[in-house]
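Input chain follows. Return structure tokens only.
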Amino acid sequence: MSWHGVDAVDDAIDVTREFLFPFSLGRWIRMVIVSLFTGGGGAGGQVASNAGNLGARLAGAGGFSGPSGGASAVAALLVAIPALSFGAASLGDPTLQLGGVPQAGAVGLVGIVLAVVVVAVALLAILLSPVFEFVLVDAIARDDLRLLRDIGTHLTNGLRLLGFRIGLAAAFIIPPAAIITALVLSGTSAESLAGRPLVIAAVALVAIGYVIVYAFVDRFTVEFVVPAMVADGGGVIDGWRRVWPRLRSQPGQTLVYIVMHLLVGIGLSIVSFVLFLVGALVIGLLAAGIGFAVGTVTSGAATTDLGISLGVLAGLVVGVPLLVILVLLPIQVLTLTYRRSYELAALGRFGESLDLIGRYRDDGESGDVAAELRGGDDGPDAGTQSVDSEATADSDDEEFGGFVPASSEVAAESDAGDDEAGDAASDPIGTDRDAPADDDGTFRDRDGADSNNPDSDERS
């Protein structure tokens, strides 16, 4: 018996290799932008942390389906709102003293400006993060990534996903918050519960189960329901109606997938860390060489302390951007692509109608559902056409992801019907050309009449 979560590991390797290589600078740059909104392959890869803690995000770059960029954007809002309040409180006359030392009013104005920028970026991340989830899935499914086109295509679905996740969070947060509020208002103290260990244990079990259910729904909404929405174009609820029966009917496969997803995430973290160490070592040696050269030159022209300071500064100016551009961002793209490919590969094994990576499979047994639904609808016998027909229609079928639209089959059947009708019209008496000829070379029809002599019936 094969396990979907295990088989998807090799499939994801093939998809990642074919999607990212041969190397295309344009595609990699676009994937960097996508990764900034969807996360760098793990729970740490959100938009807010991208600006402030690249190292921590890399350490968390695994296969875990953590919160999307919108969640970190909400956290950024929680930081920005107090900053905005502080800036407003300290806002005064934004003038500078003659000595160039800013007054409190100027500091307050700068704080407000920064807070507004943070809020704007956070809101943009909240709106675009779910959209980019669809962009990423569609890009892998079609082996094509066009940001502006794909954002416009999936904007509606992204807003649907955002609304669903907000509603889901509210549905899971409000009930326990209401219970806690009721206990506080009723005067129940923590000391009174401390003497009831069974009650505490029961509450803990319920809380753990509650969190597990929420994590399951939220996680599979992103991992499986989003691809289902890309495949059939429906909403979030419609996607769950397609995904849930498959998960429910295969509980063993679902459990193995969850465990394997965790192991894949750990593996990605290890690989990411090793790649980071190698890349950081190379970049560090290069930056150290540049810093040493600058320090040596400036030490000869000025003081030794100044030369050391300038050398360190030059090393940082060169090393940090190179580390981000040449090491962190490529690792982020690799881990994100592999994680998402793994999820799509596993989903495709749960149900063939949800297989979005058929174009990458070596056996070529299934095609690209996303491209099929955009370009046409395959019949079940679409793969039985002759090699010659496929060769002549190869260029026309590229836009359909290798599928032959159903309209092509209808046209072929219509042409075949016209040919039969033409043959019948040219041979109205039903001559059987497959019947043997007489000794004199005369063919006879099915009734034995001479097809070359219309008077033969009368003579007989």
